């Protein structure tokens, strides 16, 4: 402590310990906030169309097109340690090969509390297709609205805000429109 | 020039610097967490923490006169027999 550099050294050593304690306290404080907001997810229509393959144009696959409504007030998830929310709509279905599929068909990043009152009427942003290239053997799908809370400091937490009441069947493939 | 950069302070001053740094840093950590939590704002937390740290460094690092008020008084040289 006799010279400038030893004083800087001493203060910054304690400073880094205090910073770690502060970060730990902030991370732990997130667990105090246990908001579990619920919303609604309604399906307007599900249609299946034939399309060309993902990699080879001459191969065939089926694509599903989903129109849905989302209303969810996720504002309670914003507290002092929330940086942003990642919200997505997921289609969950099994096929006869007993593979469990969970496909994100729509998502959104919410950075501000003001934007967290979701009222969205949308369609799938991402292709919804089946591993076997056909929805013929796919079982009816559950659609869910899920969220991921990203903090400034701490662990990611996940939750489910809405789920369709009953599984929704994939319709038969239609002719090209 | 070298003395100026080295910034020596006396023993009493060294002890005081250590106490001040410890008390201020630990209490600031607690205070900034409590105030930030109450106001639900991380900006407040790190604003308080950063501002107090800057003031502390300014107060403690340079060899201010208040840390040099107890210089060691050496005994005078004694003539040897």
UniProtKB/TrEMBL annotation, chain A:
Keywords: Endoplasmic reticulum, Membrane, Signal-anchor, Transmembrane, Transmembrane helix. PROSITE patterns: PROKAR_LIPOPROTEIN. GO terms for biological process: protein targeting to ER; signal peptide processing. This is Signal peptidase subunit 3. Essential component of the signal peptidase complex (SPC) which catalyzes the cleavage of N-terminal signal sequences from nascent proteins as they are translocated into the lumen of the endoplasmic reticulum. Essential for the SPC catalytic activity, possibly by stabilizing and positioning the active center of the complex close to the lumenal surface. Essential for viability. It comes from the Eukaryota. It is found in: Endoplasmic reticulum membrane. It holds the Pfam family SPC22. The lineage of its organism: Eukaryota, Fungi, Dikarya, Basidiomycota, Agaricomycotina. GO terms for cellular component: signal peptidase complex. It comes from Macrolepiota fuliginosa MF-IS2. It is a single-pass type II membrane protein. InterPro entries: SPC3. Its main location: endoplasmic reticulum. Belongs to the SPCS3 family.
TrEMBL record, chain B:
Keywords: Endoplasmic reticulum, Membrane, Transmembrane, Transmembrane helix. It is a multi-pass membrane protein. The keyword Transmembrane applies. One of its GO terms (biological process) is signal peptide processing. Pfam families: SPC12 (PF06645). The keyword Disulfide bond does not apply. The chain crosses the membrane at residues 20-38, 44-64. GO terms for cellular component: signal peptidase complex. It is found in: Endoplasmic reticulum membrane. InterPro entries: Spc1/SPCS1. Belongs to the SPCS1 family. Component of the signal peptidase complex (SPC) which catalyzes the cleavage of N-terminal signal sequences from nascent proteins as they are translocated into the lumen of the endoplasmic reticulum. Dispensable for SPC enzymatic activity. PANTHER family: MICROSOMAL SIGNAL PEPTIDASE 12 KDA SUBUNIT, SIGNAL PEPTIDASE COMPLEX SUBUNIT 1. This is Signal peptidase complex subunit 1.
